[in-house]
Amino acid sequence: MRQVIKEIDTGEVLNDEQIDEKINAQSRALSDDEQHILADPKLYAKHIAKLEKEMLKASKELQFEQAARLRDEILRLKAQMLQSG
Hints:
Layout: E1 5-6, E2 13-14, H1 16-28, H2 32-39, H3 41-60, H4 64-84
Antiparallel strand pairs: 1-2
């Protein structure tokens, strides 16, 4: 079964390739806060440590989906740091 995806604001129907492209663009985009964090190595290290601590806490509390989201966020930020620096 194929599901039709439409943009909410434009009503444009998107194919699988367009959907993947939009998802990738969104994952590559950095918020202002993330740009600020990546610009300061000390702040970046502190933020990563905070996320890692939250991830371990979530895992210990058996909140595996939350832990996985935090892991993915950590990996995304580390990849962004490697690309920018």
